[in-house]
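Q: I have 269 residues here and want to know how they pack in 3D. Can you give me a structure?
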Amino acid sequence: MFKRNHVVRLILIFTLIMGVSSLAVMIGGVMRARNNNYITIDPETMKLIQLDPPKEGDPIAIVDTTLGEVRFRLFPEQSPNAVANFTELANSGYYNGTYVFHAESGVYSAAGAPNKDGSAKDNSHELVERELSQDLWPFKGAVLAMNTTVKQNFKEKILGGGTYYNGSRFIMLNTVTYDDEFKEELKNSSESEALADAFIENGGVPNFSQQMTVIGQIYSGMDVAEKLAQLETNDIGVYKFPKEDVLINSVTISTYSSEDEITEDTKNN
């Protein structure tokens, strides 16, 4: 009887040890899978480059819409593949006559779809692997490459993780509302005090942080971006389509010149 109880006790102890080990492995797997979705942020080396004005020679995009013009600085160093994809499409004339196909309650707009339903022509430019940078954040005026899909193996489908992709369509951010409660939550949850302060001072959509590739930052025409985000819409399916068509006439890739900007401002005034 004693030997039988001893054997049972050993089996129970062994089972408990294996259970704890399996749980540890599972938790570790989940954490690793989640970490594949994000990047490590080092507040000491982080540079909030979007808050700096464009410099002479910086690559820019000039987006001419039926509601006005938006200009934004591009970030090819931090998001090389997404910026190259956007630049190639712009130079080919792909964006000419495409739609602003979604407006999210004043927070942001989505544009660059050749089809009115928000879909792309094909998948040839829709599988650019997502690029994240600790120096780029979804501040007000940020331009993001819209996520298109995620590829996951069997383990990633169960535990999370995978490879995220973006494509031709892009998002121009306005901002969410920052009330006192939201500001406090942001300060308490942010990995950096400077980052939290930057969101509070400049606006933006913190919930998008490290979720999509940032390709640019608007420096001229923010009033137009605000109008695009505030369009009246019909809520149909996934997207909130503008009630009246708003089109992108063209997207021109150029370089920043302070003289050109002065000339353009004079022309507009």
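Q: Anything worth noting?
A: The radius of gyration is 23 Å. Residues 10-36 have pLDDT under 50 and may be disordered.
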